[in-house]
Automatic annotation (TrEMBL):
The chain crosses the membrane at residues 54-75, 87-105, 111-132, 139-160. Signal peptide: none annotated. Its main location: membrane. This is Tryptophan-rich sensory protein. It is a multi-pass membrane protein. Keywords: Membrane, Transmembrane, Transmembrane helix. Pfam families: TspO_MBR (PF03073). It comes from Mycolicibacterium iranicum (Mycobacterium iranicum). It comes from the Bacteria. Belongs to the TspO/BZRP family. InterPro entries: TspO/MBR-related_sf, TspO_MBR. It is found in: Membrane.
Amino acid sequence: MVAEHPRARSRSALALAISLLAVVAASALGGLASASSAEVYRRLEQPAFAPPSWVFGPTWTLLYALMAIAAWLVWRTGPGRETNRALTLYAVQLVLNAAWTPLFFGLGWRGIAFAELSVLLVVLVATVVAFWRRSAVAGALLLPYLAWSAFALCLNFAVWQLNN
């Protein structure tokens, strides 16, 4: 086994820290825009398949951690057009992710949030494919996020219809 050069190791650690900070920023932006989201969620008429509000915090914590690790693994594949494309898609989906919460909870625009989440899902599928091409592990780490986002799309639609 070849030892990693100290400079490369510190760049890798910095990249992991940046990746973690990016998901924390996305989470914080969404959270700031709708600090009362748990209360709003409880007041909404819910479909039978809606999880209790306490499920979202732990779920998103895990998903954000997996997302950060996946982005870091892609970054570690080295510079190049494909890596840049994958990380650009990742950044776009992260912005879309952060935008959903203020739309749905902060502004109460459930239909717009549904449309935005639909776009997020398309970009997320492209991100998973791009990540998978760089690192199968990175792509696989995004699959729970993809599944949760697809579930969220169904839940968003149902809540929108029930509260129209």
